[in-house]
Amino acid sequence: MKRKITLKHIARELDVSISTVSKALKNSEEIGRDTKDKIQAFAKLYNYRPNNIAISLKNKRTKNIGVIIPDIVHHFFTTVFRGIEHYANARGYNVIVCVSDESFDKEVINMEMLANGSIDGFIMALSAETQLKNDYNHLKEVTEQGIPLVLFDRVTDEIQCDKVIINDEEAAYRAVENLIELGRKKIALVTTENYLNVSAKRAEGYRRALKDNNISFDENLVLQLPYQMEEESMSEAFFKNQKFDALLCVNEIFAVKCMGLARKYNKRVPQDMACIGFTDGILSKYSTPSLTSVDQHGELMGETAAQMLIDKIESDHGENDEEQFETKIISATLIERGSTLSNS
Amino acid sequence: MKRKITLKHIARELDVSISTVSKALKNSEEIGRDTKDKIQAFAKLYNYRPNNIAISLKNKRTKNIGVIIPDIVHHFFTTVFRGIEHYANARGYNVIVCVSDESFDKEVINMEMLANGSIDGFIMALSAETQLKNDYNHLKEVTEQGIPLVLFDRVTDEIQCDKVIINDEEAAYRAVENLIELGRKKIALVTTENYLNVSAKRAEGYRRALKDNNISFDENLVLQLPYQMEEESMSEAFFKNQKFDALLCVNEIFAVKCMGLARKYNKRVPQDMACIGFTDGILSKYSTPSLTSVDQHGELMGETAAQMLIDKIESDHGENDEEQFETKIISATLIERGSTLSNS
DNA sequence: TTGTATGCGTTATCAA
DNA sequence: TTGATAACGCATACAA
């Protein structure tokens, strides 16, 4: 077993001091040609690599960023994560992921673990429970310690920090307008409980679009499902009792499920019921018919968040001057497919 | 800004030595009641937390594990990751993820970065390119350094280490038998290039099942698609030219795409063409018809891998005795749905 | 009961 | 041109 070699080993072996070795390996001008050559050759031979941990301790920089997301088996978060990972890697950072499982406690525990020196900054999306409790003390503590934080997608106004979001309200607005342009009059909304701020935003856009187009808002056309829509009864009843010719769903699973129900109740998609979902994931692409959906550009969001974070981390000498925070808005785009276009 | 406090701060503030503080906070019996109380109170007040990095350096244990996977926007890997993350967290470990993007070079770079002290062990699935090149020197180096490694799913015989796999060959065998029991005679296989060892295994199972049931193997009934099946021409031709009444696909995307093609060529699923896929992901559940598929139990695989890894890490005093490696096999199970069951 | 010294691996300052 | 020393934050063997 070839154990990792350290500066000390090299120094001892070559009968020089540790600091000489250190300098030689950094190609310092201070060290003589011969000594440098000798040391460098030896280091290469034994494949010397500096120990990251020691360097972290010395520099007070880990080159790690912490990512905390509610769920990992989830197309959108996964996409964002990919963007973060790519960008971070390109700038020499590694990514430590913790999954909160939509739990407040886990979110808090994970943050505290990582905040004790393991990472240089956080990127996170709030768990559902955190948003429900409206308790952000763990975020406050972290920012007060001077650890940079970037929130994405599931954000809160309670915390002053960089943020990356999509224009949910407007995306929903445009989706509904799109349906109206297709001649739809009775447009239903399928959403989650309102404490998820993205859902709330989307509902606002939905209402505003109706209003701007002189369609009166009908509460009966809003179906609010629990986040993990497991039992079908609510949606079954909705399909039985309500009349509508179009559907806006706040995620693609709801949308695909609803298209299934439409089939069951003999509504053709898109002829009798057009359908638009949020999250342009794998389901949208491969469902039958394929689903028109709002692409949230997760990868771009991730890259953007990572860039904001790393920029802040690396400019952190300015701990005195007034902190300036930014909220970047990623423009969602509508990908039109079979569920609204009859010629597909 | 409340900067992180250290032992040294406390010591200075309370006019005691650093080691006294250290012991007091560990509730050591050596320290007097009063001093202990004083120190503990102070530490609590200022929310003292030991610095992870310093502890890592001291203990030569990071409590981090490195996970390297080919892709993160991928249901199966994501599921495995969840299992790893859950288990690791429960045992006090954090997870650093690197994505190889199916690239050999990235895999190597990522491993080397993490191997320099950032992690206590690796869990990984080989990238496609690595399997294609058949070059495992980066894995060898890591294991030779005494860093524990667990491979899962995409493994290789070239490396001696712990492994977790599913019984791919048998799962495919059983899937085909299932189709035969349903009365299917001409069963096609849709697979990827063979350098992906899982695909190869599945193809073996397919052939063995045919043989055991006296169905002659017909090369024309095997469709081999590039990994990222973007152009449709090959599969279109296949559907036009070949006759078959059942399909085994090595992943769910292929399966769903094929069901789409079946529709296009007026084959009813499952009546005219039954279909089974691998990876019981979101597509299988929500496709129309829903897809019968082989559940690889990714989460269990992840937990198992994490357990093997952490057990090895924590038993690592035994660096002298002969290393014993294990390969655990997770039993895949067939989830029957609409694509093989006509009554659904 | 408390404190001193040393080490983990590295870098940086200063002295030789 | 090289080396001794201190420091990063913590833990511990050993002294006092």
Automatic annotation (TrEMBL), chains A, B:
<keyword id="KW-0804">Transcription</keyword>
<protein>
    <submittedName>
        <fullName>LacI family transcriptional regulator</fullName>
    </submittedName>
</protein>
<keyword id="KW-0805">Transcription regulation</keyword>
<dbReference type="GO" id="GO:0003700">
    <property type="term" value="F:DNA-binding transcription factor activity"/>
</dbReference>
<dbReference type="InterPro" id="IPR046335">
    <property type="entry name" value="LacI/GalR-like_sensor"/>
</dbReference>
<dbReference type="InterPro" id="IPR028082">
    <property type="entry name" value="Peripla_BP_I"/>
</dbReference>
<dbReference type="Pfam" id="PF00356">
    <property type="entry name" value="LacI"/>
</dbReference>
<dbReference type="InterPro" id="IPR000843">
    <property type="entry name" value="HTH_LacI"/>
</dbReference>
<dbReference type="InterPro" id="IPR010982">
    <property type="entry name" value="Lambda_DNA-bd_dom_sf"/>
</dbReference>
<feature type="domain" description="HTH lacI-type">
    <location>
        <begin position="5"/>
        <end position="59"/>
    </location>
</feature>
<dbReference type="Pfam" id="PF13377">
    <property type="entry name" value="Peripla_BP_3"/>
</dbReference>
<keyword id="KW-0238">DNA-binding</keyword>
<dbReference type="GO" id="GO:0000976">
    <property type="term" value="F:transcription cis-regulatory region binding"/>
</dbReference>
